[in-house]
């Protein structure tokens, strides 16, 4: 019990470390009281999932534009496909008829290391997390104490759900997952893959069967398919400063 407590305390320090939660130029707008609708608050309210109480997302991390919502989207893939737009900071779950459920995401430096197609052979509720050998080598002071991993829970970096990305039957080591750090969602961060609010990760996972196709765009393709074919795409604001 003492060892587990030490690991959790270490992980809380990891999550709070500025080096791991790097600042960025594009941020989720701060909101004045009354700007968030009750419907949006209800979407991101506290909930109990698998016996774990998931905290509500505070208004200041939300906006009506960035909330989970159905949008027009013109990707040339069948309904059910997931398109991840790291540069645009959104994930799209295609619904058919040129629409998609759009989720706000955060993308760490590792999240820009993979582009192309993958599949989701399985997902996990409140998954166990273990740092990779490269993470331990790069930052032994931070990751060394938790080299054996963390059980699922509110302090776990993978949050409430993790969808595992495989390509040609092999683990890419990339994940679409929740996060215990809602202030990072919508930002460029220095660590992690593709993270989203826990409430959104729960919602997405419930809609995604095993075998789902995932298309990850390059950073330069930000905003692709957000306008009808033939129309110019507005230049998406990108960020610098991802590190590690």
Automatic annotation (TrEMBL):
Region entry Disordered, spans: 225-244
Top-level division of the source organism's lineage: Bacteria
Functional pathway: Cell wall biogenesis; peptidoglycan biosynthesis
Leader sequence segment: 1-16
Keyword annotations of the record: Cell shape, Cell wall biogenesis/degradation, Glycosyltransferase, Hydrolase, Lipoprotein, Peptidoglycan synthesis, Signal, Transferase
Keyword presence, Transport: no
Entry GO terms, CC: extracellular region
SUPFAM superfamilies to which the protein is assigned, alphabetical: L,D-transpeptidase catalytic domain-like (SSF141523)
The L,D-TPase catalytic domain, residue ranges: 80-217
GO biological process: cell wall organization; peptidoglycan-protein cross-linking; regulation of cell shape
Active site location: 177 (proton donor/acceptor), 193 (nucleophile)
Name of one Pfam family that matches: YkuD
Listed Gene3D superfamilies: L,D-transpeptidase catalytic domain-like
Any GO molecular function: peptidoglycan L,D-transpeptidase activity
Similarity section: Belongs to the YkuD family.
Name of this protein: Lipoprotein-anchoring transpeptidase ErfK/SrfK
